Amino acid sequence: MAITTRSAIAFSVTGRYLVLALQFISTMLLARLLTPEDIGIYSAGFSIVALAHLFRDFGLNQYIIQEKELDETKLRTTFTLSLIIAWSLGALVFLLAGTAASFFKEAGIEQLLKLISFNFFIIPFGSVTMAVLRKELRFHITTFISSIAVLLGIIVAVWTAYEGAQYLCLAYGAITETSSVVLLSYFFRPKGIKLLPSLIGAKQIFRFGSIIGVGNIITQLSTSATDMLVARLLGITALGFFSRAYGAFSIFNNMFAGAIYPIILPLLSRNNNDPQKIANGYLKTVAYSLVFAWPFFSFLYLYTFETIRVLYGTQWDSAIPLVKILCVAGIFLPITLFSESLFIACGKPDITLKVQIISNAIKLSLVFMASLHSLEAVCMALVGYFFTRVIAVSFYAKKTLNISFSSILILCKQALPCLLTMTVPTIIAGQLMEGHVENIYFHFFILTTTAAIGWVFGLGISNHPFYEEIRIIIRRFAPNKSPL
């Protein structure tokens, strides 16, 4: 089939939303089958696994995607490097499982880490193929593979949770998902790809990946360190509530950024000989991010109670004030969502590294001090972190591509009509339903439907650039008029 930019984006977005729908259902089920302690144990263990995964990738997937002259030798060398790194980390996670359990003072973490370390030994056999498919914009294939793998992982996780596996059910699900990706990617592997050992050109490939990899490691290290600090200073149960609150905050990333992020780097990289086109592409992504993010976080702030109850149930009400604080960070988030792809595409991955070092150093300092007080203070520290990222990204965007902050402010102004037309009708609808609609699921459905209609109306009256994208989609799928 013919692969175009719009079709690639369509498959990427469709696949992401399908996965989100499956994860939404599983989240509701698992939140009722698992306790805050179960979630806390898994979150603590996964903070270590997530960090190990960054060492495993080390920018190798990004190398494949951005490399213009990708041949069999480079693919084989990338696969070999991935294999060496992943197997080494898998063994390390297995051997250090007991030490991690002692650090968190939770014996269950040892069994969890030993079990999930199996993933590191099989991931390399699917990751290279998936990176090649993304490079070629074959998102119809990656969407199919990811959707099937996630579905199987969720089935196993929910079933084992129901059978009493507690926090280990999440590890069983993760292993099932990874194994499914590996098996399915084997059948869809493009012709000419032979995953055989080779180290030719390894030094050059590793040098490129190291810049991106170190930056990713720093970011994940700060995320893992945040979880560790919360667990150590405020307790495992507190980490469970914090994880749920941040999970609600991260819904936007999962719904919007996660849907199109895989395609941003290959698209921007196509224009790496024209800095102005790269700058224009980045500003376009910021414009779209703002018009999605600001209405989303405004809704989440206004109706946190309803959102938490629908997503997680009654036992997670303590996360409500945490989510409200994190919503403030939503003001700054959209400006920096795709900044990493911007600097990599224009041949400046070192700038991405600088931004990550500066912002995450401040983040860890703020989180450490906040963890000595309360979860609310930790969330406020994260707001400071996102603000720092905006300052750093804006500085380097101006210096590298002459993207002025005033141009960002213009885009912010364009997003205001959608924010107003979404917020006002939704507040009115909520007031009218007060005391009349008792079912919280129906109540939430009316609120989200009203918000969506108001948002689309705002796009139209403001003639926002994304409105034209909607019109193009409608024209493409609308039936042709019959000739008179």
What sequence of helices (H) and strands (E) makes up the elements?
HHHHHHHHHHHHHHHHHHHHHHH
Structural class: mainly alpha
Q: What's the helical proportion of residues?
A: over 70%
Mean pLDDT, all residues = 84
Number of helices: 23
State the end-to-end distance.
Answer: 33 Å
Q: What amount of the residues lies in strands?
A: under 5%
Main sheet characteristics: none
List the uncertain runs: none
Rg over C-alpha atoms, rounded to the nearest angstrom = 23 Å
Which geometry do the CA atoms define?
globular
Strands, total number: 0
Describe the structure.
With about 475 residues, the chain is mostly helical. Helices cover about 80% and strands about 0% of the residues. The two termini are about 35 Å apart. The model has no long low-confidence stretch (mean pLDDT about 85).
Task: Give the arrangement of secondary structure elements.
Layout: H1 5-33, H2 36-57, H3 60-66, H4 72-95, H5 97-104, H6 108-116, H7 118-122, H8 124-135, H9 139-162, H10 168-187, H11 202-234, H12 236-249, H13 251-269, H14 275-302, H15 304-312, H16 320-329, H17 333-336, H18 339-345, H19 349-371, H20 375-401, H21 405-433, H22 440-462, H23 465-477
